[in-house]
Amino acid sequence: MLQIKNISKQYRTGELVQNALNDVSLNFRDNEFVAILGPSGSGKTTLLNIIGGLDRYDSGDLIINGISTKKYKDRDWDSYRNHTIGFVFQSYNLIPHQNILSNVELALTISGISKSERKKRAKEALEKVGLGDQLHKRPNQMSGGQMQRVAIARALVNDPDILLADEPTGALDSETSIQVMDLLNEVAKDRLVIMVTHNPELAEKYANRVVNLADGKLKCRKAIKNPNIKIWASRQCRL
Ligand code: ADP
Ligand code: MG
Fold this sequence. Notes:
binds magnesium ion, binds adenosine-5'-diphosphate, single chain, alpha/beta, 4-stranded antiparallel β-sheet
């Protein structure tokens, strides 16, 4: 289980101090689809980056399977990012001059596997997202929705416990967004998916739970699909 406890984060740029996150606490189950909803600048990306070990909290704690990360060294964070987390970004972040098979293969960070095994696993990940027949295309030969599916395959190739997606449909039209959301929904069947979005319809339609952020503070936690999911007591929002 993943727990965020009283996390705060400030960014300092010259004289300006920006409170990106202000005392945020949240628990995640091993297997659920959580949407983090909030307007631009509310701290969504900061929260996701902290959960994924891409950025550090100033105070509070990120607790992974009951273990505090307060004393984590760089190599602990590296290992966490490489083995536990898969990341999907709004802008896909694919390598343009490599074909999609290589893009996925390059993300395989598990050591001690042969070249042919790498290829096999990358191919399987691309088959799972419905792109098994396009392995040798380069990203610029694909649509936005297809590129995002490649990015999801890349995020899944290490078989992470947690998939983090930062506005994964932000650059897609509504029809393609639905395809990507259906895929994320499928992925969430056997792992934790945390998706950041500013689209309330997508959040409410697909997520088991929607968390609202405003000005770096948690506003409300709402169980949507599954009424049995326990709702943790929240000062701001009593449900
Ligand atoms: P969101 O993803 O919800 O749009 P962010 O987490 O990106 O919000 O940003 C939260 C706040 O922190 C914003 O006010 C933003 O300007 C600020 N911020 C984010 N990243 C940085 C950074 N690297 N340096 C300075 N300020 C930042
Ligand atoms: Mg953002």
